[in-house]
Amino acid sequence: MRAYKFRLYPSRVQEAEMLKHLWLAKSLWNELLGHSKKFYDDFGFFPSKDALQLMVKCMVTAKMS
Description:
The chain is mainly α. The protein has one domain (about 10-65). The protein contains 2 helices and no strands. It has helices at about 10-45, 50-65. It is extended and about 45 Å long. It starts with 11 loop residues before the first helix and ends with a helix.
């Protein structure tokens, strides 16, 4: 099996955009994790994949408007 390594040299604008996306992904992950933990504490089971996907769609549309 071969392993390939690639190196990126982004411009300052590209680097800022990548950092923004990383921050958004981290925030989304933490928000969903907190929601899942609270849901489990309240109901004794975790939310479904569909419920989490709906929550993500609602969060994205709320942040865009």
